[in-house]
Amino acid sequence: MTILVTGATGMVGRHVVVELVKTGQRVRALTRTPSAASLPDGVEVVGGDLTDPPSLEPSLDGVESMYLFPVGRRARAVVAAAKRAGVRRIVVLSGALADTDDSEDGYLAVERAVEASGLEWTHVRPGEFAANWLDSVPAIKADRVVRRPYGAAVTQPIHEADIAAVAATVLVEDGHAGRTYTFAGPEALTTVAQVNAIGTAIGDTVRFDELDPAEARAEWISNGYPETFVDWIFTMWAESARDPAPTNQQWADIVPHLTGRPARTFTQWATDHAADFR
Ligand SMILES: NC(=O)c1ccc[n+]([C@@H]2O[C@H](COP(=O)([O-])OP(=O)(O)OC[C@H]3O[C@@H](n4cnc5c(N)ncnc54)[C@H](OP(=O)(O)O)[C@@H]3O)[C@@H](O)[C@H]2O)c1
Question: Is the CB of 9 inside a 6 Å radius of any atom of ligand 1?
Fold first, then answer.
């Protein structure tokens, strides 16, 4: 059977491809720019654009299962094209906060489009990606500093390879139809602890400069982050700094339960990305 991976050149999608290749699956990868895909040998790379469903036809031919990168309101047309082509199973990359965003481009819109298709579905809802720290690469590289508010805020970051391992498992294994898996990394850590772990991984000190929230808000907005996003994330961090949650064990248990392997720690993630930060 052929498995189509959309978002195959993305942070998670690349690992989904690698996981599937490792277990001997026939993998087709979708990208808008096949010449730049740089995916493992043996992977069939096909061009197509998720915002242009007719362009997906060549990639869908003969596909049984599909990993769907979240495409908001476009999901309905993409899923219809998949159904016409004979796809039977769709695994949706969604997010742990799916239920908090009912907008037409939110994760729920994608999940609902897939559910309404009548195809077999599984929703993969990871929490905060450890890879969000890659936004701090320029400041860490240049000045060995992270400048942010709410150093005491706690998150439970997850390694992109573990998200992919969960997705790959439910793509190939039976028994996950109609299931929604909400999960996160193995432990809750403060922002400062995560900065320190990056420092340890690169063998240098990375300073945490705690910014005043109002000053940081203005800076983020002037750097191009949408106001609604900044307010949303700052509110979450403020609440978490005030009342830090312990590790959500139910979320932490999903990766080992589904993949049979321990979840990668944040220290592991920082080590895997040390070269990015150096
Ligand atoms: N950051 C978090 O904490 C977090 C938490 C939960 C969920 N999420 C969700 O996870 C997703 C990000 O996943 P990721 O990091 O693996 O992706 P990513 O690194 O942002 O890469 C985006 C991928 O999507 C593909 N893509 C984008 N637009 C496309 C289009 N019109 N047609 C075809 N392919 C298209 C790109 O392929 P080409 O450029 O090669 O065409 C690329 O492979 C987001 O939806 C995000 O909201 C994030």
Answer: yes
